[in-house]
Amino acid sequence: MYQIVRKEDLAENIILMDVLAPRVAKSCLPGQFIIARIDEEGERIPLTICDYDRQKGTITIVVQTIGASTERMRELKEEDAFLDFVGPLGCASEFCQEKNLEETKKKNLVFIAGGLGTAPVYPQVKWLHEHGVEATVIMGSRTKDLLFYIDEMKAVAKEVYVTTDDGTYGFHGMGTNQLQALYDEGKHFDHCI
User: Fold this and answer.
1) Model pTM?
2) 3-class SS letters over 81-114
3) Which of 82, 99, 138, 171 has the least C-beta neighbours within 10 A?
4) pLDDT tens across 37-74, in order?
């Protein structure tokens, strides 16, 4: 059993959970995912690893309620547990596999995270930061109420630009509109993720 040690509502129908899964936390890398199942009758749900703490043995996942199984997940409380929490699965981010980080450090990187796309972007930017590589991040959502992890992202990114489609916070427009505005201001990026 994999206990939920922290649960937080991020926005309407979006929750964050820290799950005690030491084996997964010990070996995961940014870009990988897990498959969670609540109980014997539960559906297997693949979820991006949003963050991890190797010392505490926890994995952070972000879940948006979109169906019966994710609704059941939303109803779980701290100290409840998942029957299955399988991972890490999938390939790690290409940056974690870089043979020459010194070359990557010379590049001007920009990540664009839209909505729940913040979950897979954050661990990559955090990993790069921990290895001396700076990255700019453009993160956005449809509206201010759906934004999450802004402060966490600011702690690991060189610069963070926040956008909302409806203009309720930050730049009015999508992340790609913000990228175009930065380009028009004379900013140059070698790699856009």
Assistant:
1) 0.87
2) EECEEEEEECCCCHHHHCCCHHHHHCCCEEEEEE
3) 99
4) 999 988 999 999 999 999 999 999 999 988 888 899 99
